[in-house]
Amino acid sequence: MHRPTAPRRWRVAAAAAVAMATGTTGLAALTGTASAAGESVTVQYRTSAGSATADQSEPWLKVRNTGNAPLQLSAVKVRYYFKADSAGAAYRFACSWAVKGCAHITGTFGTLARPTATADRYLDIGFTAGAGSLAPGADTGDMQLRFHRADWQTLTQSDDYSFSASRTTYADWPKVTAQVSGSTVWGTAPEGNDPTDPPTDPPTDPPAGGQSLFDDFNYSNSGDPRISANGWSVRSNSGGPGVPGATWAPENVTFAASGGNSVMNLRTSTAGTPETTKHTEVLTKAMKFKNGTYAARVRFSDAPVSGPDGDRLVQTFFTINDLKAPMADDYAEYDFEYLPNGGWGEPSNILYTTSWETYNPDPWQAVNQHTESRQSHAGWHDLVLTIDNSTIKYYVDGQLFGSHDAAYLPERPMSINFNQWLIDLAGQTSTTPRSYDQQVDYVLHVKDQVLTPAQVTAKLNAYRAAGTTFEDTVPAG
Ligand SMILES: [Ca+2]
Ligand SMILES: [Ca+2]
Ligand SMILES: [Ca+2]
């Protein structure tokens, strides 16, 4: 089986642009000084479909650089907030015409963790590097954008936060927001969208039985034959994601006792060149995991073990299968991705959960839904993902983090993966060696059962009470 090339590149264009916008050091992005340096924009809006209900919502936008320096458009994101027609409704973005060229404009949908009466979703408008820059005082010109329901049913836009039926000519519009390199510089978001909702399910004992994979990662080293016997592959083959020319280093995967328990350590290291960059990944050889519960205890880190900090690092726990053709519907991927030093246009630490319908690698087009939290997640975390026939849910430390829609459910089984890699080498340009650790205590999958985080913990404790460090009763996919 070929390992799927993990397509976590959906903001790569933005990341590249941040590097350009901040010169050779990239330090402005890392220290969040992009807007402090005077970058500012205004966003003008009009609609060309002003009715309360419509086949498509048509937000037309112009972004103007009101700062005093050229502005790389790929550092800019504009967010349009709306109320979904139903909890399971899915949407598609399209660009009808744009002065900058529709090929240089991206649209991805997300879910607000704290919905309001007029907003539970958003559309993020972004730009590829090919969109170029805006001189001081210049604007993008017309961007004639639209979105519609995936099933082409009529949508209601009169209840949408960012919609205004009366705006039929361009004027400044503060009910969309704009960010430059991750800092909000325009508009007002709907109130209260912290991604922290309390769990609603009471703790109970886990359901009996259930075909399961459990591994406490009690191994001696990356060459331990039990790793392969238990269905894991420690990656050594080259390729993406991340720094081109980097290697994937099995020897950087180690195991150590920690408080009577064993943890797996993924160490990613670099001395600032592709040749010295070593990524790490551990994944199941089989793609046989689909609906049910996925859980892992993972330790993210904000700082290197040694050497200078600042690299644009991605620390992950995810499931994925292979893209059989561009935009193939039967692709599936569900990610926890922590960026301790920013990247993908973000200036600082951010945790993403992302559910993928599909994507097109070239030209880049993503069909996904994501939820994000801009704060440090350094330390140990209990990560839980559940998938049933209607919803995808992500939990962090027992709290619901994101809930994604039926349109993003998996069509085929997937592998389970952990990896740590560098997006690029622009975050820290030193050639002093440094390394970063991501640790994994255990992984659990229970086929076709949606467990609460408390039920996951109970099942983990039952395995440990029984002295079981590995079990795999999940049938081949
Ligand atoms: Ca609506
Ligand atoms: Ca363990
Ligand atoms: Ca899909």
Describe this structure in words.
The chain has 477 residues and is mainly β. The protein folds into two domains: 14-186, Endoglucanase-like (Immunoglobulin-like); 197-472, Sandwich (Jelly Rolls), CATH 2.60.120. It has four helices and 32 strands. The protein has helices at 12-21, 27-30, 225-229, 453-465; strands spanning 41-47, 53-54, 56-57, 59-65, 71-72, 76-82, 91-98, 105-116, 119-127, 133-134, 143-149, 155-156, 171-172, 176-180, 183-186, 212-215, 232-234, 247-248, 253-258, 261-270, 278-284, 292-300, 313-320, 333-339, 350-361, 364-373, 379-387, 392-396, 399-404, 415-422, 434-447, 470-472. Strands 6, 8, 9, 14, 15, 17, 18, 21, 23, 24, 25, 26 and 30 form a 13-stranded mixed beta sheet that branches. Strands 16, 19, 20, 22, 27, 28, 29, 31 and 32 form a nine-stranded antiparallel beta sheet that branches. Strands 1, 3, 4, 7, 11 and 13 form a six-stranded antiparallel beta sheet that branches. A hairpin with a 4-residue loop joins strand 27 (379-387) and strand 28 (392-396). The longest helix is centred in the last third of the chain and has 13 residues, at 453-465. It is globular and about 70 Å long. The two termini are 13 Å apart. Residues 1-36 and 194-205 have low confidence and may be disordered.
